[in-house]
Amino acid sequence: MTKKIWKEYPYDKRFLICNDGRVISCARKYPKLLKPFINKSNVKLDGTYSKYLRHTLAGKKILAHRLVLETFVGPCPPGMSGSHLDGNSLNNELNNLEWATLKDNIALQIFHGTRLKGELISSHKLDELDVELLRSFYATFKISYRSLAKIFELASKTTVEKIIRRQKWAHIS
Predict the structure, then answer these.
(1) Residue 40 has what pLDDT?
(2) In the Cβ-directed half-sphere of 5, how many Cα atoms lie within 13 Å?
(3) Average pLDDT, integer, range 58-68
(4) Does one domain contain both 20 and 42?
(5) Which one, 66, 83, 120, 133, has the greatest CB density within 10 A?
């Protein structure tokens, strides 16, 4: 079992961060253990959580893993973000976290099977049948990206282009 260590958050000394992800506010008369929260918009279709614990510090929402890394490792290097080594985004123990590039972070998510794609993303606008139909319309009728975006009620022609080039929805043949 890892020893619990508390340190001042380097960007606001009124908060103490534990190496297990807990946060104490010392902003008032008595210290208070803050409860983390998960944005309800980040719930997967099967009802499980797909994202990260957050804390509100002085009115600003900050990812719990970022608080731990900034406190115990140091500032986030340019081009890096927080990464959970075990693939569990709710495990904010220091020994489970590191700063990683986006490429490395995605590779870890794929390895752990936690990378969401297609209809598993709660904000998806298309389903697999729509994607097949969109690609078929383009291949058969050479309809412009802009027109396809309007037909399928997508925000931009760039999204259509990425679907056709298999940069998005690549898992659908």
Answers:
(1) 57
(2) 11
(3) 90
(4) yes
(5) 83
